[in-house]
Design a protein that fits this description.
Layout (H helix, E strand, L loop, with lengths): L1 E5 L27 H10 L1 H4 L4 E6 L8 H11 L4 E6 L7 H10 L3 E6 L5 H8 L4 H15 L5 E8 L7 H11 L5 E6 L5 H4 L1 H4 L3 H9 L11 E4 L14 E2 L7 E2 L16 E2 H7 L11 E5 L7 E6 L1
Parallel strand pairs: 1-2, 2-3, 3-4, 4-5, 5-6, 6-7, 7-8
Antiparallel strand pairs: 9-10, 11-12
Length: about 300
């Protein structure tokens, strides 16, 4: 369940999936006051409790004047749902704020977005001065003060601006932040701000593939790596155990040649909006024969793979 806590942000990311402000909350309201948020949450209580997790997002949720109260309310009223906070991490620059957030509940995953291995690369995407240093310090503070059951995760979105620095980014993470619980490498989504800025951000799976291939020797340096929004044929098979199916069925398509691929049942499919803007010629059925060991997880279906 996604809960938009705040529609404002102190970054201005070129490929942000949010529409232009103002945008309505899930009930059509444009009111993001604490009272309005709590009213909406209470109204949707039964539905929220059917989900495994609650995503608190935005905009930038930590900028909400009553963010700590919102987090406290959600944690107390939905103890069985895992709380996931999607953030640019900048406010965690402040140690007192970091400690306060982490003290509210142990049932917490925090996901920070980082877009490059240095200030120039990151801020080319965020278009916000000092955002790189603040996010790096925020990540450090979170890792320093997190409790055992809390997870601190990093999201890296691949765009034209960032794909060539993938290897450098993972090396930075390994050197400075290897205790990060999970790193998600996410192929860009063709929607909202990404469509408006498509010339600046568009990159194909074929273009990304050789740079992604360089990452394999580095993957063992981390607790967990996930790959989001990748069809299987866009990757070398050695990456398949890291691939997650991350889009709903109505957000993807399979082209006619996909019917010839014996691994279709494990595949995400082709993101529908990507196919509209970038085409589908690069996607081909996989001809090699592999032994697949399956997981009992529809979102991450492949445990291991070997050639027959």
């Amino acid at each position: 369940m996604d809960i938009c806590v705040w529609d404002k942000c102190n970054n201005n990311c070129l490929m942000c999936t949010n529409p232009d402000r103002p945008w309505p909350a899930w009930d059509g309201s444009f009111d993001y006051s604490y009272e309005s948020l709590i009213k909406r949450i209470k109204k949707s209580e039964k539905e929220i409790k059917t989900y495994d997790s609650i995503y608190l997002g935005g905009g930038e949720p930590t900028l909400h004047p009553a963010f700590l109260k919102v987090l406290n309310f959600v944690s107390k009223n939905f103890p069985k749902q895992r709380i996931k906070l999607l953030t640019n991490g900048r406010k965690f620059l402040y140690r007192d704020f970091t400690k306060e957030v982490l003290s509210i509940t142990n049932n917490l995953d925090i996901e920070l977005s980082i877009y490059g291995p240095n200030k120039k690369a990151h801020e080319a995407v965020t278009r916000a001065s000092n955002s790189f240093e603040q996010t790096m310090q925020g990540l450090k503070n979170l890792l320093d003060y997190k409790k055992e059951d809390q997870l601190i995760n990093v999201r890296f979105v691949i765009t034209k601006l960032s794909y060539k620095s993938l290897e450098e980014f993972l090396k930075l993470m390994g050197e400075r932040f290897s205790s990060t619980d999970r790193i998600m490498i996410i192929f860009w989504e063709v929607e909202n701000q990404a469509v408006k800025n498509i010339k600046a951000v568009k990159v194909t799976y074929n273009q990304v593939s050789p740079y992604l291939g360089k990452l394999y020797p580095l993957l063992g340096n981390f607790k967990e790596i996930r790959l989001y929004h990748f069809p299987l044929c866009a990757l070398s098979e050695k990456f398949w155990p890291y691939v997650w199916r991350t889009l709903d069925k109505d957000e993807v398509i399979f082209n006619s040649s996909c019917a010839k691929c014996q691994y279709r049942k494990y595949c995400l499919g082709i993101p529908k909006e990507y196919s509209k803007h970038m085409g589908i010629k690069e996607f081909k059925p996989i001809k090699e024969n592999f032994n697949i060991k399956e997981r009992k997880n529809i979102y991450q279906p492949i445990l291991s793979i070997n050639k027959k």
